[in-house]
Inverse folding.
């Protein structure tokens, strides 16, 4: 296990169970956990598949317990997994925490083209707290437009003094955010990268500036990146070298890793753009020179 970073942002390059054990109990304000889903994704050569579903759940229960243990008494926990495993998480966690919302991250995915059944267009997220009477929830920071109030300017005549409906509201439990696609600026080379916007809502709602946010399965370190942007502190844990490199770069914690310069991978369309720009530059140089020589 190797630790990188500074007082505010740490990356633990290691296994989640081992790394979580090293954190102090009751020390974390917000945990966002997006583990492997046991659906056969390829995490840099490491297969996301357990021998049996029971084995997967047994492993999950271990890190779920650790997350509960590390959370402060007023802390919040957001956890994801595949739709088929979420009911098990739900039953396990509601004996240990208070589940306040069962969220659906909905996306319109052109990649989903099931023909003989209904393609999956969402991922579930549980939002839990330790103490349902004392937890951070920054309503003002996550308000969204209330369509009825904002657009139709209806008046609520049931009130003693008739009032215009609110134009803003707390988001409901279905959240629509586009999946991270290859052409998006935030794209990194990882099969299950989560969108910045999703983490922005979670971190803004359930933590304050200076709070500690932990992500035990960091992947591209979206959670830690957003935590840093929003002035929170962060600890991100990740097993794979390739993804730790992304984290070190995204969080600007290092310029090199084991002697290798950390740079964002150039995407195919950027190579074409770069080549066109270089050709244009070359053309302008020779053309300019040609014109210059004529006069
Ligand atoms: C679903 S992805 C997380 C994606 C992340 N939320 C993002 O936005 O990029 C799960 C990550 O957990 C990592 N992982 C798998 N098993 C692990 C373990 N035992 N300890 C730490 N990380 C692990 C994988 O390498 C993968 O990057």
């Amino acid at each position: 296990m190797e630790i990188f970073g500074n007082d505010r942002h740490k990356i633990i390059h290691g296994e989640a169970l081992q790394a979580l054990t090293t954190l102090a109990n009751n020390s974390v304000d917000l945990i966002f956990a997006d583990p492997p889903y046991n659906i056969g994704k390829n995490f840099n050569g490491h297969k996301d598949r357990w021998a049996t579903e029971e084995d997967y759940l047994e492993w999950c229960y271990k890190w779920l317990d650790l997350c509960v243990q590390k959370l402060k008494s007023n802390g919040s926990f957001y956890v994801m997994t595949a739709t088929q495993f979420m009911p098990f998480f739900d039953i396990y966690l509601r004996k240990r925490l208070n589940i306040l919302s069962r969220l659906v991250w909905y996306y319109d995915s052109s990649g989903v083209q099931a023909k003989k059944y209904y393609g999956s267009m969402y991922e579930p997220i549980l939002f839990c707290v330790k103490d349902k009477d004392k937890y951070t929830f920054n309503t003002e920071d996550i308000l969204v437009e209330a369509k009825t109030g904002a657009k139709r300017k209806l008046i609520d005549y049931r009130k003693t003094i008739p009032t215009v409906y609110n134009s803003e509201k707390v988001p409901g439990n279905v959240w629509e955010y586009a999946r991270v696609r290859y052409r998006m600026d935030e794209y990194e080379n990882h099969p299950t990268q989560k969108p910045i916007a999703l983490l922005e809502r979670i971190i803004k709602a359930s933590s304050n500036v200076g709070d500690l946010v932990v992500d035990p399965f960091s992947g591209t370190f979206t959670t830690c990146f957003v935590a840093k942007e929003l002035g929170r502190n962060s600890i991100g844990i990740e097993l794979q070298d390739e993804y730790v490199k992304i984290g070190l770069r995204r969080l600007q914690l290092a310029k090199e890793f084991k002697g290798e310069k950390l740079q964002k991978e150039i995407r195919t369309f950027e190579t074409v753009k770069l080549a066109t720009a270089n050709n244009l530059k070359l053309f302008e140089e020779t053309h300019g020179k040609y014109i210059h020589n004529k006069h």
